[in-house]
UniProtKB/TrEMBL annotation:
UniProt-listed InterPro entries: ArsR-like_HTH (IPR011991), HTH_HxlR (IPR002577), WH-like_DNA-bd_sf (IPR036388), WH_DNA-bd_sf (IPR036390)
Ranges for domain HTH hxlR-type: 17-108
Keyword Transcription regulation carried by entry: yes
DNA-binding recorded as keyword: yes
Annotated Gene3D superfamilies: Winged helix-like DNA-binding domain superfamily/Winged helix DNA-binding domain
Sorted UniProt keywords: DNA-binding, Transcription, Transcription regulation
The organism of origin for this protein: Pseudomonas benzenivorans
SUPFAM superfamilies: Winged helix' DNA-binding domain (SSF46785)
Lineage: Bacteria, Pseudomonadati, Pseudomonadota, Gammaproteobacteria, Pseudomonadales
Superkingdom, natural source: Bacteria
Stored PROSITE patterns: HTH_HXLR
Protein name (Swiss-Prot/TrEMBL): Helix-turn-helix transcriptional regulator
Pfam families linked to this entry: HxlR
Length: 113
């Protein structure tokens, strides 16, 4: 499977509209988890694999390549880190994370736990 690129056909879209390319990239196994972990702090390959329990080295290597190719992460002094574009993407995801926290709280409240 090739790296999703805006303007090129991607999973679910023959046109490769930018939003479809982004959804294809973010929908790949472990991609969002890797970005989320790097939002917490930069990490070496081994540390990132440890934080993403159950992630195989080959999948991690593939995802890191895709994220680097799409300029969402970069290598820094402390290992892999979000690039400015990656940080901007995570900022756009924060309202979704806040919504998820409220959703979880309402479910717990409704279920009486």
């Amino acid at each position: 499977m090739s790296t999703p690129t805006p303007g090129q056909p991607v999973r679910g879209s023959s046109t490769g509209r930018p939003i479809m390319a982004l959804l294809d990239l973010l929908g790949r196994r472990w991609t969002l988890r890797i970005l989320w972990e790097l939002n917490q702090a930069p990490a070496s390959f081994r540390e990132l694999q440890s934080r993403c329990e159950g992630l195989s080295p080959s999948v991690l290597n593939t995802r890191l390549g895709e994220l680097r190719e799409n300029r969402l992460l970069e290598n820094g002094e402390q290992g892999y880190q979000l690039s400015p574009l990656g940080r901007e993407l995570i900022e756009q995801c924060l309202p979704l994370a806040q919504w998820a926290d409220g959703w979880a709280a309402r479910l717990v409240e409704q279920n009486g736990h």
